[in-house]
Design goal:
It contains 14 helices and 13 strands. The protein is 32% helix and 19% strand. It has 401 residues and is α/β, with parallel strands linked by helices. The strands form two sheets. Strands 9-8-10-1-11-12-2-13 form an eight-stranded mixed β-sheet, with helices on both faces. Strands 3, 4, 5, 6 and 7 form a five-stranded antiparallel β-sheet that branches. Helix 5 crosses helix 9, helix 10 packs parallel to helix 12 and helix 11 runs antiparallel to helix 12. It folds into two domains: 242 residues, Alkaline Phosphatase, subunit A; 138 residues, no CATH class.
Amino acid sequence: MDNHELIQTLQEQNDNKIVMLVSDGIGGLPLKPGGKTELETAKTPNLDALAKIGVSGMSTPIKPGITPGSGPGHLGIFGYDPMKYIIGRGALEAAGIGFALGPNDVAIRCNFCTIDKTGNISDRRAGRIPSDESAAVVNILKQIKLPDVELFVEPVKEHRFVLVIRGKGLGGNVADTDPQKTSVPPLDPIAHDDESKKTAELAKEFYNQAKKLLADQPKANCLTMRGFAKRPALPSYKELYGLNAACIAVYPMYKGLASLVGMEVIGEAKTLQEEIDVLEKRWNDYNFFFVHFKYTDSRGEDGDFDAKAKMIEELDAIVPRITALKPSCLVVTGDHSTPAKMASHSFHPVPTLMVSEIARTDDVQEYGETAANHGGLGHFDAMYIMQLAMAHAERLAKFGA
């Protein structure tokens, strides 16, 4: 019996509700040895108060030393083994904008970028071009035609857009073209297996046509491709946990991942405050809520320590609105760490807090990496967060006689 089979066997129905508050990339590092992380620097009286009445620990997103992408990071905290269930970024982005992937589709998450006169990337995100400007540039790319396939080019948010190639004989195992650094040109899409060679060839031709069409754009004059993917097969939250689950998020990719595991994406929130508005309005309609906050990750990726700390303070400020709803179990965690010191995702474990009337409290007095390092939950794989949340919401029966 694997872990999913066990949970399905033990799931119990009651009126208890679970809220999972995910601050993307919340884990960090001090700028100097012995200093404080972004989370420890931020003023977080509300999260600290929860730490005193809850139980804390450190969750490892994938495996020790392995740096996760956003997809596997979220799959883990949703209770899916990210080493078993592999979802490409393209499928996440497509699902996030409501694009229904078919069996003959390969989805690709694309970024507009800026290249200089030598063809080298000067800005990997085209200055984080605003969404309305980006959408206009996406429309230019819709005139591209390729033989024997259909193309769908759709805007996502800011510099991101989705390309879906629909046709027979397409595989999704193609290398990203984003070199993950500047001062070098975009890479070629390289197939990792025979089934994906046609996809790689089509992607290369799309890129060549796009580069010509974008040549006169001031910011988005080129593109990179990431996360070539076909639609995955995942058991739903309803099947696994018996939960009627909802997702409240701003960014499409996280909506996409939630929808792929059977959550209903609710509301049209554009800010964190609006997300909590949706939570309050729809509180009686669901028994599990995934609430996602992106900007701790964004500021970490920008390498801006102080700005990330301010985003954490913004998160802390909305906590009383969540606790006022009296969830049976409140989980506060992140999908991975994004230290401003590294300006990227990292392998470091994530401080995780669980608040419930039946939590066995520890001596942790604040929500932060150093404190959580010796909390009662210990160090554990993030894929067990949902299992622990179910237990703290009294939604798991006894195993065995």
